[in-house]
Design a protein that fits this description.
Glyco_hydro/deAcase_b/a-brl, NODB_dom, globular, EC 3.5.1.41, binds zinc ion, alpha/beta, 3-stranded parallel sheet, membrane, metal ion binding, 4-stranded parallel sheet, 14 helices, 30% helix, binds 2-acetamido-2-deoxy-beta-D-glucopyranose, TIM Barrel
Length: 422
């Protein structure tokens, strides 16, 4: 009679995912499921244990009691914040608000009529187009996505840099992926902590949504960013002012690919392709002959990233240049830290004319080639950092990426060998 053998199982306690430590090894993973296996990253784990960040994927309610720097900065700006009450709900329900909101749009509320020229004194206009003609300001929202290696490999092979608008909660979940953007020479901007409608937040909470995302990017990637994009474009002069006090330029868009909306509200993949095609047709129609374009596109999921890749050759052929937002503005110091340098627009295009990219898929894309293109000068390195991933995330259909299951006890069973069926 055969002896039945029980093979040992190692049970890891909740939250103790495998450690991962290196940006380059994370960037070399090619299987999306492995990329997206939650992992622990010591600096993030420690920061969370020390209550230095609010709960991941939860709207910020207030600054944390032990956050001396955040509290001091907020106290300093508090009395000068424009006296504009919060609007609607953070889920984007403005039905109780818009009926009483003046048609003159006194708050320059983008959600109302796409206002980008602030009415409050001292605020700069939002960036909704790029100043260089026949140029596409290239950016992606909602990352870092755990499965982004194929997309970032593609950009690397195309020697194409972009502006990545990162959600703070995603940065904490996927710190090594966030580091990759900086290592690859992309520009990183803030896209809030919990990806809600910003005009609904009271002042301190709105400050916290931006502040903790700035801190997360600094913790993980070592840089303090200078730009942000409001989720759903939902910004008014109160929120613009708070962002400006944090050194953040507000970046919007003029065209929406609607890639984030596929499957909802009658938006199909054909709709999205038509939006890309219309943008491309507009280049030859002369629409961008004096001012370039910004179209909203996403690092949200496999479809949005694949669609970006599929359309890249045609965009590169149509536009004279495709550049990150900072490059279109000759912003050569994209971060507060002075040891990162971007090329000027002239320097970038001297080596990166979009039209020189061959039509068709870029061959041999892989992350190990990232150091080959050195357009960002000294922009290398990923600083320190942290991170732990957990849960899975979903698009709610309103474009809000909500992480599901974070905080629920996760038990990882690692089979040490073949599990015998007894
Ligand atoms: C901010 O100012 C408001 C009044 O405008 C005051 O009620 C509140 O206590 C202040 N908060 C902080 C943190 O200073
Ligand atoms: C294309 O140009 C037309 C005319 O200016 C404009 O109405 C439309 O919004 C543009 N669409 C895109 C995607 O560029
Ligand atoms: C990342 O993309 C994958 C598909 O490639 C998707 O399943 C996942 O939900 C996305 N994660 C986030 C945080 O958006
Ligand atoms: C989309 O998913 C497929 C199947 O996992 C994968 O081969 C492909 O590389 C993914 N594309 C992107 C852009 O992530
Ligand atoms: C960028 O700098 C070049 C000079 O190098 C100048 O011609 C161009 O107008 C500048 N663009 C912007 C948007 O400032
Ligand atoms: C890119 O285009 C500019 C003119 O827009 C030209 O001066 C430059 O030489 C081109 N660079 C390359 C690498 O083709
Ligand atoms: C990436 O390309 C390099 C050089 O061609 C190769 O040595 C390496 O194995 C490739 N990595 C992956 C993950 O494909
Ligand atoms: C990258 O650019 C910097 C600054 O222009 C230069 O000093 C360095 O030698 C370049 N490195 C490579 C590998 O080309
Ligand atoms: C910039 O300086 C910081 C520390 O001051 C360091 O952690 C980081 O690696 C440096 N980055 C580069 C690209 O030199
Ligand atoms: Zn978004």
């Amino acid at each position: 009679m055969p002896l039945k053998t029980f093979l040992p199982l190692l049970f890891l306690a909740a939250g103790s995912h495998a450690q991962r430590t290196s940006e380059s090894s994370e960037a070399s993973i090619t299987d999306p499921a492995s990329e997206c296996a939650p992992y622990a990253y010591a600096p993030v784990t420690s920061a969370l244990a020390a209550s230095q960040f609010p709960p991941i994927w939860t709207p910020v309610a207030s600054l944390l009691p032990n956050d001396a720097a955040g509290l001091a900065l907020f106290a300093k700006i508090n009395s000068s914040i424009p006296n504009i009450p919060p609007k609607g709900t953070m889920a984007g329900d403005f039905s109780n608000f818009t009926p009483t909101y003046p048609a003159t749009d006194p708050d320059c509320w983008w959600t109302f009529h796409q206002c980008t020229q602030p009415k409050a004194a001292g605020l700069s206009a939002d960036v909704a187009s790029v100043p260089e003609a026949r140029t596409l300001g290239y950016g992606f929202d909602d990352g870092p996505n755990c499965s982004h290696n194929a997309f970032y490999d593609y950009l690397t092979a195309a020697q194409q840099k972009a502006t990545m608008f990162y959600i703070g909660s995603n940065v904490m979940d996927w710190p090594l992926e966030a580091q990759r953007a900086v290592a690859d020479g992309h520009e990183v901007c803030v896209h809030t902590w919990s990806h809600r409608y910003m005009t609904a937040f009271p002042n301190e909470a709105a400050f916290g949504e931006l502040w903790y995302t700035l801190q997360a990017i600094k913790l993980v990637a070592g840089v303090t960013v200078k730009c942000w994009r409001p989720p759903f474009g939902d910004v008014d002069d109160r929120i613009r002012y708070i962002a400006a006090q944090l050194g953040l330029e507000t970046v919007l868009w003029k065209y929406d690919s609607n890639d984030w909306k596929v499957g909802t509200g009658g938006v199909t993949t054909a709709t999205v392709q038509a939006n890309y095609d219309a943008l491309i047709a507009n280049v030859s129609a002369g629409v961008f002959d004096t001012v370039g374009a910004i179209m909203l596109t996403h690092e949200l999921n496999n479809y949005t990233m694949q669609t970006a890749m599929d359309n890249y050759p045609a965009l590169a052929k149509a536009f004279d240049h495709i550049v990150p937002i900072a490059v279109a503005q000759n912003q050569t110091q994209p971060y507060v830290e002075t040891n990162y340098t971007f090329p000027t627009f002239a320097q970038y295009i001297a080596t990166h004319n979009a039209s020189t990219v061959p039509a068709g898929p870029v061959p041999g894309a892989n992350s190990t080639t990232s150091s080959a293109s050195n357009v960002t000068g000294s922009n290398t390195g990923s600083g320190s950092s942290s991170g732990s991933g957990s849960g899975s995330s979903q698009s709610t259909g309103t474009g809000v990426s909500l992480r599901v299951g974070v905080g629920a006890p996760l038990v990882l069973a690692v089979a040490m060998g073949v599990l015998a069926v007894l």
